[in-house]
Structures are given as C-alpha cells and as structure tokens.
C-alpha cells in the first residue's frame, strides 16, 4: 500500500520507514504540506479530534492513505488543564516554539510542570475512514534545556522514571520513552496483529508449540529483532521471577508500568486462552514483542479449583485472604488428599502476528498452615515433596528450579537462546 506521510522532516520519515518496515508499505513524503492545511492555526486543542480532521483533508486532496501526527504537552496551570500544541505554524521554527513554551512555564512551581507529552497519529483513507493512535509519556517540563540529542522539545522533557530528559537518552532509550514512538508502535501492532485471534486451535497440552495464527498475514520479516520484550503482568511477584528467568537472553525488558492502558478481563476457560489474550492485547497496544503469564493452582480435593480463577478465588481480594479461604475450603481434608499442582502458561505474542506458548507444571501438597516468607500468592501453602519445602521457603533460584514458571521459562529460553529467530509461518498452501 502506498501511504503519504505528512512531514517534511527527513529523519522522521526515515524512522517511520524503519519502524513500519514489517508492514511492507511504501511511505512517501508529502513534502511541505503547510499550504494544504485547511487552517494550520485552527484552535482545536484536543488533538484526538483535530488530527483526524486534518489527516482526512490531506487524504482526500491526495487520493492516498495519509499519515499525520501531532504532539502536545498537557499540564495544569492554576488548576486548569492547558494544552500546548507542538504543531509548527507557518513562520514558527522549533527554536521559536521552544521559547514560547519556556515563556509560558516561567514561574510555575514544579507540581504544575508535571505534564503529559502526547502524540496523536492518524492514518486517514481518502474514502473518509480514519484510525487514530495515541502515545503518551508522563514527565516534567524543565525551565532550561538539558541534553543534546533528540528533536524539538526533547531537551525540555524530563522523564521521571528514567531520571533524564529525552535529549539525554540514547536512541534506544528514547525509543522506549518517546510518545511518538509509542503511537507508531501501536499502529504497527494494530495492522500486523489484526488477524490474531486468541480463539485459534490450541497446541497439544503439556507441550510448547508454535501457532500460526494468521495465514493471510504479512510474512514475518527476517529483519533483526529489537530484542525488546514487554512483560505484560501486573503482578510484581511474577514480574520479578520472569525478569530473573529471562536474564540469560540479555534482552531489554519493558513493563506495564511504562504504559497507561488497562489490561482486559481474563475471561478465558484455560490458562492458554488467558495467556494468549493478555499477550495479544498488550502486543496490539504497544506493537512490542510481548510475554504474558497465566498461572494458577489446581487442587484435586476441590476438583481443580481455583484453576484459572486463582487470582479471584472466593472473590477474595488479597493473597492473604485467598490463602485463608483455601485453608477453609480444605478444612478436614487429610494430608494424602491435599494434592495439587501449579500450572504456568507463558504466551509470547509477536507483532508479526503469531504466538508461541510454553507450559510448566509442578506437583505438590497444600499444607494446613503457611510456611516461609518468600515468594508471593499461594507460595507459603504449596509444599514441594521433591524439595522438602514450600515455595515460600525457597530462594528465588531454588523456586525457579522447581516451579511451574521456572519450567516454562526454561523451555522459552531453550527456544530463543541461539538468537532470536522468528519461526517460519508455515503456509497452508
Ligand atoms: O508461583 C506462584 N506462587 C504463588 N502463587 C502463584 C504463583 N503463580 C501464580 N500464582 C497465583 C497468583 C494469582 O493469584 C494467580 C495467577 O493469576 P493470574 O491472572 O495468572 O496472575 P495475576 O492476575 O496475579 O497477574 P497478571 O494477570 O497481571 O499477570 O495464581
Ligand atoms: Mg490476572
């Protein structure tokens, strides 16, 4: 597909071509489009309304799908939300705009310089259809520029989480924190993963397998992977274990804390379903290679409960309450009938439109009282006979050797250790 890009900045076009390469689109610059705009100074502070309108205008004029992005800072001044658009009006150089922004910020206390740096990216089609993607990053606007790299306002935007301005970051870091890149990755994720359905046939249980999810989708490109993986879990205990387990790969990890979107409800009937649902969703949101973990405890005396409902067992809200509830449910059940297993399914969603699954299982017993301080969740109640301890009595390394998650991770590492290769999508023809 030929796509016009509404920019006259060569570096931006080059970066866009690089990021969107897997789509195989032919991206062409529109050149200086300022004269084509209906009203370049149109107020429309809400970029999510304004950008689609302008992009549609350009698409209709050119007869081609057209990409347009605009960014703004949103901050609070005297209790009011203020938007500072970064669209260059005619005659405004980057320098002049930066000066205007500094002017506006003069005398603002730090809490009022907290800001949301937002990019709105629209792909508009000549027929009038539009798709809009938003990327955002929280930070603080500085009084004085800091750093040398980046473009535009990067010298003024301090990312708290990173402890530096976008201009002080390496290109790889900037990629991670820039709202523009986030918006572009969302577009990529959307287009490439469109055919990804978590309802496809599952691989045989108990094995890892490669699913080909998108027979008609773009073929996986062999371009070197960014080696960046989003670990899509909101559970800090899991995140720690996954981070440790993935360390041998040396990949750069992103977490959900880097993003503002909410994960969807986990409505699947199996761990596989839920893991794929979570991975596919977060992958689509971010365009990143994404790992999700769905796990839980199956207790034989409870006919497999809590299973996929482990995180909301008995409607209990905390790990402690769920552990108490589990003990209540097992009251009077003798030791030899307290068998249980932990299951973990890891799903890796590739922005190229397919998914891999890894599964690990650990057999054990539910004790009558908690033992140990480590770990999280049901760890203090889960006794592993082969180790003679509960998960909560093990160090992280020890738990990794015995645990369901550790086993699934070992399979994952085995699959990716010789460098990251995207499996060939086996075509049905
Ligand atoms: O090694 C473990 N040791 C103890 N407990 C564990 C373990 N692995 C899973 N569990 C428990 C935690 C949670 O109650 C449920 C998983 O639910 P699950 O939906 O997969 O995770 P979650 O909601 O905590 O985080 P998220 O979905 O964001 O990844 O099983
Ligand atoms: Mg969950």
TrEMBL record:
It comes from Calidithermus roseus. GO terms for biological process: nucleotide metabolic process; purine nucleoside triphosphate catabolic process. The active site is at residue 294. Residues 198-226 are annotated as: Disordered. It catalyses: ITP + H2O = IMP + diphosphate + H(+); XTP + H2O = XMP + diphosphate + H(+); dITP + H2O = dIMP + diphosphate + H(+). This is dITP/XTP pyrophosphatase. Its EC number is 3.6.1.66. Substrate binds at residues 233-238, 295, 376-379, 399, 404-405. Keywords: Hydrolase, Magnesium, Metal-binding, Nucleotide metabolism, Nucleotide-binding.
């Amino acid at each position: 597909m030929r796509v016009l890009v509404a920019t006259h900045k060569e570096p931006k076009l080059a970066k866009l071509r690089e990021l969107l390469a897997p789509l195989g689109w032919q991206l062409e610059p529109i050149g200086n489009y300022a004269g084509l705009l209906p009203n370049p100074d149109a107020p429309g502070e809400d970029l999510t309304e304004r950008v689609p309108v302008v992009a549609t205008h350009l698409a209709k004029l050119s007869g081609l799908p057209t990409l347009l992005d605009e960014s703004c800072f949103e901050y609070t001044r005297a209790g009011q939300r203020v938007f500072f658009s970064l669209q260059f009006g005619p005659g405004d150089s980057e320098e002049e705009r930066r000066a205007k922004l500094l002017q506006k910020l003069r005398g603002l206390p730090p809490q009022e310089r907290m800001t949301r740096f937002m990019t709105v990216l629209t792909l508009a089609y000549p027929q009038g259809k539009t798709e809009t993607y938003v990327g955002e990053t929280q930070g603080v606007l500085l009084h004085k520029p800091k750093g040398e790299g980046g473009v535009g306002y990067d010298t003024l935007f301090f990312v708290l989480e990173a402890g530096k301005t976008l201009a002080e970051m390496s290109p790889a870091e900037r990629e991670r924190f820039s709202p523009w890149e986030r918006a572009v990755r969302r577009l990529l994720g959307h287009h490439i993963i469109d055919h990804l359905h978590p309802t496809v046939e599952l691989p045989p249980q108990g094995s890892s397998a490669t699913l080909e999810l998108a027979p008609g989708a773009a073929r996986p490109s062999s371009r070197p992977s960014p080696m960046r993986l989003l670990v899509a879990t909101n559970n800090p205990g899991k995140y720690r274990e996954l981070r440790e387990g993935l360390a041998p790969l040396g990949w750069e990890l992103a977490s959900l804390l880097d993003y503002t979107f909410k994960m969807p409800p986990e409505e699947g009937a199996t761990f596989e379903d839920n893991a794929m649902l979570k991975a596919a969703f977060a992958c689509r949101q971010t365009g990143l290679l994404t790992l999700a973990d769905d796990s839980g405890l199956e207790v034989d005396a409870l006919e497999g409960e809590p299973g996929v409902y482990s995180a909301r067992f008995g409607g209990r809200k905390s790990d402690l309450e769920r552990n108490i509830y589990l003990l209540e449910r097992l009251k009077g059940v003798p030791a030899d009938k307290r068998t249980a297993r932990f299951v973990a399914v890891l799903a890796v969603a590739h922005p190229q439109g397919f998914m891999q699954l890894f599964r690990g299982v650990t057999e054990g017993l539910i004790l009558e009282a908690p033992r140990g301080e480590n770990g999280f969740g049901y760890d203090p109640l889960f006794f592993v006979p082969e180790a003679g301890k509960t998960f909560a009595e093990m160090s992280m390394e020890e738990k990794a050797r015995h645990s369901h998650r550790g086993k699934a991770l070992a399979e994952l590492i085995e699959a990716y250790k010789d460098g990251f290769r995207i499996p060939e999508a086996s075509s049905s023809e």
